[in-house]
Amino acid sequence: MGSSGRLQVRPANRADAPALRAILLGTFESTWRPQLPGGDARARQEVERMAAFVAERSLEFQVAERDGAVVGFVHWQDDFVNALHVSPGQARRGVGSRLMEVAEAAMAKAGHAKSRLETDTFNTASQAFYAARGYLEADRYPDEEWDAGFTTVLLVKPLV
Asked: Hey, CA dihedral for 73, 77, 80, 82, is it positive or negative?
């Protein structure tokens, strides 16, 4: 997958589903799986959960495409970013930044004064990415989604 082509952001379509699942699997394997207890059984459960998320919600995603390949996606509702994932091979190449620009602009256009999202304390790379975009920590609480003893960090950014 090249990284030199022009990055385009567009609404997801049904044909994107395999690429979206592959991106989720890649970020799961590189970021989440090393942190999760439960080994292969837990990993299979999470992969099934990711496939269901794509099946149920992917038509709400905005995808980033480079050189004809989907390399990332963002999903938000109202003022909350539910998911931002970039193919591990495309990290630090502007994909996440461009997707967040699209999401934040849409939130602001819809009249929202802020953008909110969550990450976990162990995910220091995402915390640094969001801090560079102007997000500030607003709260910490137990992460109930993963049921693994993680701590969630709520990040908030004012939109202008």
From this structure: negative
